[in-house]
Amino acid sequence: MSLPPDTTIRWARPEDAGCIINLIKRLAAYESEPQTSIKITEADIHRDGFSEPKRFECLIAELDEEVAGFALFFHNYSTWMGKPGIYLEDLYVDEKARGSGLGKNLMAALAKLAQERGCERLELSVLDWNPTRNFYHAIDCNHMKTWLPYRMESATIPALAAKAPDIAN
């Protein structure tokens, strides 16, 4: 897939930490989440994205040499397949760049990485009201009807952790 003129998909660099946070804040605004929900700092980005062990990787989309979107992802693992996968935590393209092909090119780049890394799956979650669900359907990313997402939040983890047995070596 060729990129539209004046667009680039590239790996995030440490100096992009501030841009990544700005994109996360714009994503939160798009999802009608308060900016106070965003706790991540540039130090977090540096520690978890550019130091070992890396907790995530990030692709940056540029339009006319300006950062216009990103895809932040990490590896997961399928015990049934015995293969790694990629979990897309966040994909965001600025409103002014939507329709330019940046989102599709970010997803194609992730698919290529998944293929090169021997991944069996490329997974993500989408809010039920989000109109970009149509975008995902158009690129053959299907809604899983039988699996429901669950999450344990940080406020409830300590109560369960307190009941944990010691882990033997």
Question: Top keywords for this entry?
Answer:
alpha+beta, Aminopeptidase, five-stranded mixed beta sheet
N-to-C terminal Cα separation, in Å?
Answer: 49 Å
Tell the overall outline: globular
**CATH fold assignment:** Aminopeptidase
**CATH architecture descriptor text:** 3-Layer(aba) Sandwich
Order of helices and strands: EHHEEEHEHH
What is Rg? 17 Å
Would you identify the CATH H-level superfamily?
Answer: Gcn5-related N-acetyltransferase (GNAT)
* Strand percent estimate: 15-25%
Q: Point out poorly predicted stretches.
A: none
CATH class: Alpha Beta
Briefly, what is this?
By secondary structure, this protein is an alpha+beta fold. 29% of the residues lie in helices and 24% in strands.
List the helices and strands and how they pair.
Elements: E1 7-11, H1 17-30, H2 42-50, E2 57-63, E3 66-78, E4 83-93, H3 102-116, E5 121-124, H4 133-138, H5 157-161
Parallel strand pairs: 4-5
Antiparallel strand pairs: 1-2, 2-3, 3-4
Helix pairs in contact: 1-2
